[in-house]
Design a protein that fits this description.
alpha/beta; Rossmann fold; UDP-N-acetylmuramoyl-L-alanine:D-glutamate ligase; 2 domains; 7-stranded parallel β-sheet; 20 strands; 15% strand; ATP-binding
Length: 505
């Protein structure tokens, strides 16, 4: 499923009508009927519904929704919030069809009259404004939106909640806080941004008949189980431990041995054939007790952290992960630089490795092998030299720019994880839940990604599937036996087996 900006959605509409010859009135009818069908799944016909109708396509959809629900026996009151001359084109056609069917239409003259209607409503359907809105709302939409937000009625938005921008980069706005949003044709970018996503509530996308072959593919798409199932690596019956890759994980310290243990164990649980751990000798007893299947790489240490270079032949490994729990000493930075410069195999850099990478960006650009960075927003902001607030306002743009300029893959972690390839293509993974907001979850993800990178033909597919498995494990565990509060990173590792089985069934 593709994710679109406002401009891309307008382009899809234009191509559908001008190049494919589709009738805009039919598309509007399809959209309104599709939304009405979703409303019927959530609303009883004895509940009172108020449809708030503005100008443009969103308002036109509102006329279709109101007419469809009234025809099906629902209690509906339609309110037109703009003057008659602002209802034009396809929306005007559907207004005339609504009136021609014999239904009443209320016109907004005094907001207090509408407010009394909203006080009696069980359901409010927001068909006021669509994807072309930027910034603060103007009257009467600002007043109506503010009042609706205080209502206890179920609020259903059509395509996008009124006032919410479709694109990233806009943080100063008024928006209707929907309980459910029925998105038309494709999700908009703002459905995945931390400052706008909450306005959508629960959401789903409805199909309205756009000509898929005529539409330009966008650079951003959504990953799901339908993508994961056919792309997960398969185990050949005659394979052996070397077939599925040998991973080297570098990190850990005397005071933080758990991070590297979690990553190594997650890598093996995710299908890696072999795993070796380069960690301080003082940390190894704590690591090995949790992962006896891993081997140790001889290292030197100072004050409980890795010292200087790691004496290892990188050609003996299929992928390297570095940074988890290794600390921020100068010696640690030297080891990160060593890996970036000398390891031609895929390299994954996380945690403290990302901290050191800020001073090694020129070295990073000169790599020949793939590099994967797995930052959370704070780490990504540090790499970019901006604030977290600035990053989260435009996470797609910042990730794309960094990945392209440095020739790396970025896994920007969050409720909507954004995976960006060096060519600028982006995939969003929304799996998981708040149970992942716990120390160690990121270390587990790094291990999963490392394993799949060694087994998949495509790095991007490996990263998408790894994020999806990580989130799926959390979802399954909190459905059966765990709560989002008690879920631990170690639980995630053990839950991977169920996630794999679910996706392979």
């Amino acid at each position: 499923m593709y994710i679109v900006t406002a401009h891309e959605m307008y382009d899809w509409d234009r191509k559908s009508i001008e190049e494919a010859g589709m009738d805009g009135r039919i598309l509007m009818e399809n959209a309104g009927r599709a939304v009405a069908e979703q409303v019927e799944k959530r609303v009883r016909n004895d509940q009172h519904i108020v449809v708030l109708i503005g100008a443009g396509n969103n308002g036109g959809d509102g006329f279709v929704i109101a007419r469809t629900l009234l025809n099906r026996g629902y209690s509906v009151k339609a309110w037109q919030l703009v003057s008659d001359e602002k209802i034009k084109g396809d929306a005007l056609v559907h207004k005339q069809l609504y009136l021609g069917a014999g239904f009443e239409l209320a016109h907004l003259t005094k907001v207090n009259v509408l407010f009394r209607e909203l006080d009696q409503a069980d359901v409010i359907i927001d068909a006021m404004l669509g994807i072309g809105v930027y910034g603060k709302l103007k009257p009467p939409f600002d007043q109506v939106t503010a009042y609706a937000n205080q209502s206890q009625a179920l609020k259903i938005a059509v395509d996008i909640p009124t006032g919410v921008p479709a694109d990233e980069g806009i943080t100063d706005f008024d928006g209707l806080q929907a309980d459910y949003t029925c998105i038309i044709a494709a999700p908009k970018l703002s459905a995945f941004l931390p400052h706008t996503a909450p306005y959508y509530g629960e959401w789903e996308v409805v199909e309205i008949g756009l000509p898929a072959k005529k539409l330009k593919k966008t650079s951003v798409s959504l990953w799901s189980s339908e993508h994961a199932r056919p792309t997960l690596p398969e185990r050949h019956p005659y394979s052996h431990k070397g077939t599925h890759g040998k991973a080297l994980v570098i990190g850990g310290s005397y005071l933080m041995p758990g991070s590297i243990a979690l990553s190594a164990r997650a890598a093996l649980r995710s299908g890696a054939g072999l795993a070796a751990v380069a960690t301080p000798k003082s940390a190894w007893p704590s690591v090995s007790v949790h992962i006896p299947e891993a081997t140790a790489v001889s290292t030197s240490e100072e004050n409980g952290v890795l010292a200087e270079r790691v004496e290892v032949d990188f050609t003996g490994y299929d992928a390297v992960g570095i940074g988890m729990g290794m600390g921020r000493s100068d010696a640690s930075r030297t080891i990160v630089q060593q890996v970036v410069e000398e390891a031609d195999v895929p390299v994954l850099i996380d945690a403290d490795g990302l901290y050191h990478l800020k001073q090694l960006l020129d070295v990073l650009k000169n790599r020949t092998g793939p590099a994967v960075l797995t930052p959370h927003p704070g780490e990504m902001a540090h790499l970019l030299g901006i604030t977290v607030t600035e990053l989260l306002a435009r996470p797609f743009e910042w990730s794309q720019r960094f990945a392209y300029n440095h020739g790396v893959y970025i896994v920007l972690k969050g409720p909507s994880t954004i995976i960006t390839a060096p060519d600028g293509t982006q995939v969003v993974d929304t799996s998981g839940n708040a149970g992942l907001a716990k120390g160690g979850s990121g270390d587990v993800l790094s291990g999963i990604l490392l394993a799949l990178m060694m087994q998949s033909q495509s790095i991007t597919e490996a990263l998408c599937n790894g994020c999806f498995l990580h989130g799926k494990a959390a979802e399954l565990l909190t459905t059966e036996g765990h709560s989002k509060a008690d879920l631990l990173a170690t639980d995630l590792i053990e839950g991977l087996s169920q996630a794999f089985r679910t996706l392979s069934s």
